[in-house]
Amino acid sequence: MYTTKKPYLIDAIVGNSRFLASLGRTGRMYRLWWPHIDYPQHVDEIRSGLYIEGTSGTTWFDGEEDGWRHEASYVPRTNMFKTTAVSERCPLSAETVDYAVPGEDFIVRQYTFTNRGEAPVSFRFMYYSSFRSMETPFYHTTQFDEAHDSLMHLRHEYIFSVSSSNVCTGYQAGAAVWENAQSGHLNGNGIDMKPDGALCWHIEQLEPGAAVEVPVYIAAGQTRAASQQSLAKAKSQPHTYWYDFTESYWHRFLLDAVPAPGSRSDIRELYERSLLAMKLMSDEKSGSVVAAPEFDEQFSRCGGYSYCWGRDAAFITTALDRVGLTELSAKFYEWTLTAQDPDGSWQQRHYHDGRLAPSWGLQIDEGASIIWGMWQHYLQVQDEAFLQNVWPAVERGARFLTGYIDAETGLPACSMDLWEERFAEHTYSAGAVFGGLTAAASFAERLGKPELASEWSLAAERIRQSIGELCWNEEKGAFYRALKLAVPEAAYREAQQQGLGTSVSVNAKGYTTYFLEHDPIVDISLIGISVPFGVFPADDPRMVRTADKIEQYLTSPAVGGIKRYENDHYIGGNPWILTTLWLCHYRIHRGQYSEAKSLLQWAIDHRTAAGLLPEQVDKQTGETAWVVPLTWSHAMFILAVALLAEHGQLD
């Protein structure tokens, strides 16, 4: 049964250093990544159902058909997700606890079935699994491995063994398996060059009030033997052992972090959930930090999320450093050394191994943010070995930044903006380059290289002057979003008719790019030139006016929260969590604590039922919209809480 992956499905994530799985609120597993958290994804379809003796077919309790209702939440202070399903049409309730065992190549799906009725019940637990490993429908084999009582899904170097400590009573591989699983009767076919198969367990006469447990393990390996070995490891202990082991691991992880400040339970819960989520989004082996679990592989409405952006990661690692999880940050900055281009630049986004991911072209703020983040990390850890290790990359990166300046404006030359939509000389990007060069100068000063420190400090100062002289829009009372905005020819002609400033550029092949002199749109990213990059202080009158215009123009009228920019159309133009918290950061720096706490509360109020922070909130309903979780959202929450606590304003 091939399915087309759709967005909007993620409600929870579970994982460890090698596994990542996304789950819906019904407990259904939609995606599974191994051995890295970004690529490749393997699951086509996994379903869990019950066939009650004497009925016409299987009822799938990980969906809402047949009246199934669900309660779902994380096991407190862990990355273990529990779902309870009940239906008035079924005498059994089904509880599922999903978790990846730390350090192991297997996931546990711990099922408990309870007889809620008044008579004994005989039933079959049906487990259907279709693996489209490497995200392709071709060249799969599914086989029942009798020696290990497992269903094995094989493709290339990705082998998954599905089994239980309970011996199965039926199996089927290949053709017609979904239809037979629906009917509750598997035909015993042992092998097929198809991606799907099913197992079942027959439970006889479960008494009223009694419960039975069936743990299902998904074990992975790059060979048959490795997959079987992982499965044997899973079966070597009772599932309760793995449950306790995993629960203790996550509790210890939180104990290693700075505790949540203040006494509010809602802040503490989201603070801890943010740390847990950021840990899952960090590839422990490579050090890369993923923006979000992928949920739109078909690129139906976006360009994908399961990549590492240097910009996002600079904010994320700064948050990790603030809470004492500096090892994750250090690992990320080791990773950045593998992702830097020979010319000193860092491109838009990368896979976990540093290879270039699909891209819209250079975003100059990405590399600048990495250098800025490196300095923030050094300030936190004061590790001289780290300073020496990253210095060659910092030097190459700073030289690239200073060579990417437009002689006419004194700003960084045109590149894509942080929202990956426009080509221009962006004010935010200029602020990030200022921050990167200032950080590079600090590195040089610390290493006893005063000439480089002076060169880069002067370059940063010239950018500050250019922003102040060229990027202020007195008519609107806010900074311009950009200069030299590339537009279609029709928009260029219309601007000429209106008497607006325009220009053209012709490249070496004779192709023309049309520019508007100014982009006057109010954008939340304009906050960035003050917080965090410090081009101007928060109390600079122009920053004060810009922030007020942001709040005036970008507050979503129906549900509150801050949109990215005027007339934003992406996914309907919703308010975002991170943008709202960005304004919160600025208000804290201005000492406007009441306003800041209102913005923080909006973010808290719009977490998902499972306690995660999405990217967006629907502008009409206030419900979660688009990707869940967005790692940058969680980082901005952590930073907001830390800032308020520093000022004694959290409670």
UniProtKB/TrEMBL annotation:
Recorded GO molecular functions are: hydrolase activity, hydrolyzing O-glycosyl compounds
Q: Where is the GH15-like domain?
A: 268-585
Domain of life the protein comes from: Bacteria
UniProtKB keywords: Hydrolase
User: Which Gene Ontology biological process is one annotated for this entry?
Assistant: carbohydrate metabolic process
User: Is Acyltransferase tagged as a keyword?
Assistant: no
Q: Which Pfam families match?
A: Glyco_hydro_15
Q: Which PANTHER family match?
A: GLUCAN 1,4-ALPHA-GLUCOSIDASE, TREHALASE
Question: What's the protein called, per UniProt?
Answer: Glycoside hydrolase family 15
Task: Report the source organism.
Answer: Paenibacillus tyrfis
